[in-house]
Design brief:
Blueprint (H helix, E strand, L loop, with lengths): L1 E8 L5 E20 L2 E14 L2 E17 L2 E8 L3 E5 L7 E3 L3 E9 L7 E10 L8 E12 L2 E8 L2 E9 L3 E9 L6 E9 L2
Antiparallel strand pairs: 1-2, 2-3, 3-4, 4-5, 4-6, 5-8, 6-7, 8-9, 9-10, 10-11, 11-12, 12-13, 13-14
Length: 196
């Protein structure tokens, strides 16, 4: 994700100028399918820069997907189980745990083999904040206009996102823009997924 400039303000609301922000992530995953159930695990690495601060880290994600009938897809994933991040400007001992996030989704498609339209409903919860639950809902739609081209749109906690996708036999490329959770601006995402 990349947001070239973010406006900063002090506690009195006075502008402190703009700061640069950028974040990158890489994933290496493995999945297997047994009947109608798919299981997967992904190792992730993160690199994030905010003004003069630089953070890096990684985590393990576990997921499951089931398709009880061809047009219904149910999925669940736990991200950062575990997950750690380090501030490169502090003592190497200052490593903090990333919050573990659970996501549950329900996808409904038009009948295969086309499946050109998908409606996605989801819930997201922070498992490390059970005492003060952080639960978000999201809804999205994906429309495939041609065999290899898709347009996507959705809402997450009242923040919208729009995207484009290109799907080749072993490569998927997607671009998305969304409003960040703090509603301070827009974020751009580029995702390249290679299967082998």
């Amino acid at each position: 994700t990349y947001a070239p400039l973010i406006d900063g303000y002090d506690s009195m609301g006075v502008s402190t100028g703009s700061i640069a922000y950028g974040a990158y992530a890489g994933y290496l995953g493995y999945a297997m399918e047994t009947g109608m159930v798919k299981l997967g695990a992904t190792l992730s690495v993160y690199d994030e820069s905010l003004d003069t601060q630089h953070y890096y880290g990684g985590g393990l994600n576990l997921g499951i997907q089931m398709s009880p009938i061809p047009i219904v897809h149910i999925g669940a994933v736990i991200e950062n189980l575990p997950g750690l991040m380090q501030d490169s400007y502090t003592d190497p001992g200052q490593i903090r745990k990333l919050d573990s996030i659970m996501k549950i989704s329900l996808g409904i498609t038009t009948p295969p083999p086309d499946a050109s339209v998908m409606l996605l409903l989801g819930l997201e919860a922070n498992l490390d904040k059970i005492a003060q639950p952080e639960i978000y809902g999201n809804v999205g739609v994906k429309v495939k206009f041609a065999k290899y081209f898709s347009v996507m749109g959705g809402l997450r906690n009242n923040n919208f996102a729009l995207g484009l996708g290109f799907e080749l036999p072993s490569v998927k490329i997607a671009y998305a823009i969304n409003q960040d959770q703090m509603q301070t601006g827009f974020q751009h995402f580029v995702d390249i997924n290679v299967t082998f």
